[in-house]
Amino acid sequence: MRARRWLVRGVRGTGRGDRGAATPLAVGLIATLVILATLLLGIGAALADASRLGHTADSAALAAADTLLGWHAGEPCAVAERLAERHDARVVGCTVDELSVVVTVTRSILALPVERSARAGAPDLR
Q1: Where is the Putative Flp pilus-assembly TadG-like N-terminal domain positioned along the sequence (predicted)?
Q2: How many independent structural domains does the chain possess?
Q3: How confident is the prediction for the chain on average, in pLDDT?
């Protein structure tokens, strides 16, 4: 009987100072993991949006180059602007050379302005 009481109470007295010490530690650890997971998901979503913005710049430049080369009717920069607007981006630069177009688009990602540029058209032979 004494041995059982000693095992239940521990070596020092009643052991009341250690009761429930793991619960706050576990709650703190779970809260930390939830916060880290939320941050990682946010960063992952921002990286995916930045990649999508690069694809939008590529698409807008290709559409503008198709128009410049006469495969579609219209003005190259206007076509690039329409395509960028459909993808929730804004054209901030559109440069038309002889046979190529450089398009720069921007969008706000996590409250930060992000820009991507793309070039499309005939190869640069210089």
Answers
A1: 20-66
A2: 1
A3: 86
